[in-house]
Amino acid sequence: MAIKPSTTPYRVTSQPEAILIDVRHFNPEKMGVLKFVLFQDYGIESAKYESIWDYEQYCRIAEPGLEALRAIGACMNGDKPIILSHEYMGMPTALCARSRYPGQFRTIFYAHEVATMRRIVEEHPGHDTMFYNVLAKATANGQYVEDIFGSQRGFYKHPLVEASRFCDNIFAVGDYVVKELRFLRKEFAGVHIDLAYNGVPAGH
C-alpha cells in the first residue's frame, strides 16, 4: 500500500517526558567514581573545578539521568538513545554514557559556540578582530589554541568541550564554530562535524 506524503512536512507532534533531578543531594562515593572515570578516560581533572557549582551540578546529574533513562525503558529492544549534549552542560552525561554503558547510547555534542574561544575573545582588548586573524594565521601554521594563548586548563568549560571529540558526532551552528572546534587541538582534524545552522528548517 502506498503511503501518501504529508501535506504539512514540518508539522511534527512529540510527547517528551521531563525527568526532574534534585542535584542538591548526591552520593559522594559514586560521584568520586564518576570523576575518576572522567579523568581516566578523558583526562578531565575534576578536582580543579569542584568549587565551581556550574561544573559540579552537571557532573551530579550525569549518572542519575542515565539511570532514569534506563529505568523508563529507553535502552530496551536494542534501541540506542541519543544523548544530545547542549554545549558543555551535557558533556558529563555524554561521557558517562560512553564509559559506563558502552554501546548502549549514541552521543552528540551540539556546539552553539566554543566556550574556550568565547572567553579569549571577551577578555582580550582586540576581541574578535584580534582572535579570528590569529586563528587564520595559526591554523595555516599548524598551531592550536594553547600554542598561541597558553594553557586553558584553568577554565572548567575547556576540558568538557575538548572532550567532545570522543562523541559519536558534533553539530555546529555555524562555519566559524567549526573552525574554532578544529582550533582546539589537532585531534579535531579527524572528527566528523555536521553544520546545523540555527533557525533553518529541515524537513527530513
Describe it.
The chain has 204 residues and is an alpha/beta fold. The chain has one domain: 3-Layer(aba) Sandwich (Rossmann fold). It has helices at 28-42, 53-71, 91-100, 115-123, 127-140, 145-149, 157-162, 175-182; strands at residues 82-86, 106-111, 169-172, 193-195. The protein is globular, with a radius of gyration of 19 Å. The model has no long low-confidence stretch (mean pLDDT 90).
In CATH terms, the superfamily is Glycogen Phosphorylase B
Q: What is the terminal-to-terminal distance?
A: 22 Å
Mean pLDDT: 90
Q: Report the radius of gyration as a whole number of Å.
A: 19 Å
**Tally of individual helices:** 8
How are the strands of the biggest sheet laid out side by side?
1-2-3-4
Low-confidence stretches: none
How helical, in percent, are the residues?
Answer: 40-55%
Strand content: 5-15%
> What's the domain count?
1
CATH-assigned fold name: Rossmann fold
Number of strands: 4
CATH C-level label: Alpha Beta
